[in-house]
Write a structure and sequence with these properties.
Layout: H1 2-27, E1 34-37, H2 39-45, H3 47-84, H4 90-144, E2 148-151, H5 165-171
Parallel strand pairs: 1-2
Length: 173
């Protein structure tokens, strides 16, 4: 039974393959032209990318300053507690150490939350830059007669003549 099923599949495949072949050859140009763009370089060197980077860096520094202040406060509290350890009753010392430990855990959670917020902010900035870049990339592709543009990170090697990074950088505001 399985032999008849296999022969039937081969027969259907032979009947359908000429139809699929005509679809495939009609969609691909005879001599496709490919380009590459280094998006990281565009974002680092274009005016829009520089503005976004400065904005992100300011946000990062503000959050880092806040976190550093909380860490310094916690260190001071720990140092004060160690100085008082000799004169405090054991149960009071344990209670204060437990409170300090709780504050440390809260600080670690805050640091994780700030890191997630920064990652989200960075992704949003990159997404906004890509929205600005997409129409410019299409414009460059049409002007250069390019069929396909790849991101440079995904390419092992490309002739420098197919690199469209400078054109995109020049077109971004």
């Amino acid at each position: 039974m399985s032999r008849y099923l296999a022969l039937g599949c081969v027969g259907i495949g032979l009947m359908v393959s000429p139809l699929l072949g005509s679809f495939a050859t009609g969609a691909v140009p005879a001599n496709p032209k490919i380009g590459v763009i280094n998006i990281d370089e565009v974002f680092a060197t274009s005016p829009a990318g520089k503005r976004a980077s400065e904005s992100f860096e300011k946000t990062r520094k503000d959050k880092q300053t806040s976190l550093d202040k909380q860490q310094d406060d916690l260190r001071k509290q720990a140092a004060d507690l160690e100085k008082q350890a000799a004169v405090l009753k054991p149960e009071v010392l344990k209670q204060k150490r437990d409170e300090l430990q709780k504050k440390l855990i809260d600080l670690q959670q805050t640091a994780g939350k700030l890191e997630r917020e920064l990652n989200e902010a960075r992704e949003k900035i990159l997404g906004d830059l890509m929205k600005q870049a997409d129409p410019k990339i299409a414009e460059i592709a049409k002007a250069e007669g390019v069929t396909l543009i790849l991101e440079r990170r995904g390419v092992v090697w490309a002739d420098p003549g197919v690199d469209l990074t400078k054109q995109l950088t020049a077109k971004l505001p």
